[in-house]
Amino acid sequence: MTILVTGGRGHVARGVVGQLLEVGEKVRLASRNPTAVTAPDSVEVVGADLTRVDTLAPALAGVSKVFCYADPAGIDSLVTAAQDAGVGHVVLLSASPVTAANPAANPLAVMHKAAEQALLDSELSWTFLRPATFATNTLQWAQSIRREGVVRAAYPEAHTDAIHEADIAAVAVRALTEEGHVGRAYLMTGPESVTQRQQVEAISAAIGRPVEFVELTPAEYRETLARWGGGLVDQLIRYLAENDGVPMPVINTVELMTGRPARTFAQWARDHADEFR
Questions:
Q1: Where is the secretion signal located (predicted)?
Q2: Residue 185 in contact with residue 120, Cβ under 8 Å?
Q3: Using one digit for the tens of pLDDT, what is the confidence trace for 46-62?
């Protein structure tokens, strides 16, 4: 049987595809824009838009399991189509904020919670992955590092529990290919608590040239992030302020699931060095 991976251009999806192939699984990769997807020759690439029901039935034909992102705009259609296609299991990439004391105050938590609830209300079996901050979020610094060797942000000493997308993918692959993960929700972090300044230093070491951290005030930083929309910017500023000088707790889910420690941020920086050069 075939495993369908949605969000074909996403960092985690690409990792899931590669690691599924390594263990001998047959993979179909779905994307809204399949012509823009690069995949190994053995992977069937199909066009599918979770918000368009007519594109889902062909993508799900013959599929036993699905890996998908938590997109509430299309989750109801996906659930219905997956049930109709006889899909056995869905692994949903959610996010750690859904476990917060007040998830309704976080736009990202609201989005992911809605997707989780759609699966909880369905007839499908499921596994939820709830990673902490994605290390790939620091790719927002790539342009200024390439052009100027500078990162401009607030709260340089704010901590994060950044996780490598390859580790998220590794846990997803276990949930898709092994028994014992139905009805489980996995909270996961990177192996260490690192500050924004330490992240910049790791990127500098990875690319072999200096990168300066220019500290902005919260108000100045907010202006640089205006394109994100108010709710997300508010949440980010609040997150940084709350974790300024405060180490984050780390969880060894990746090691328990895969048998090896999670990758450090320094490793992530080395893996993505070309994107910052």
A1: none
A2: no
A3: 998 888 888 899 999 99
Euclidean distance between CA atoms 28 and 118, whole angstroms: 23
Q: In the chain, which residue ranges form alpha helices assigned H by DSSP?
A: 11-22, 56-60, 72-85, 107-120, 142-148, 165-177, 196-207, 218-224, 230-242, 253-258, 265-271, 273-276
Token output for 5: 């991976």
Give the pairing type, strands 194-195 and 159-160: antiparallel
User: What tokens appear for 244 in the block?
Assistant: 């300024």
Q: At 137, which amino acid appears?
A: N
Q: Per residue in 7-40, pLDDT tens?
A: 888 999 999 999 999 999 999 999 988 888 888 8
Contacts of 257 (CB under 8 A, 6+ apart): 170, 171, 174, 186
Q: What is the largest CA-CA distance in the chain?
A: 55
String of b and e for 138-165 (b: at least 16 CB within 10 Å)?
beebbebbeeeeebebbbbebbbbbbbb
Structure letter (DSSP) for residue 27: E
Tell me which H or E stretch contains 156: none
Q: Is the dihedral of CA 187, 228, 101, 110 positive or negative?
A: negative
Which segments of the chain have a pLDDT < 50?
none
Query: In the structure encoding, which two tokens stand for residue 120, read together?
Result: 């909880």
- Partnered with residue 128 across adjacent β-strands are 92, 185
* pLDDT for residue 267: 98
- The CA dihedral of 112, 117, 118, 124, to the nearest 10 degrees, is 110
Kindly report the pTM of this predicted structure: 0.94
10 Å CB burial of residue 104 (0-12, 13-18, 19+) is: exposed
In angstroms, the CA 54 to CA 175 distance is 28
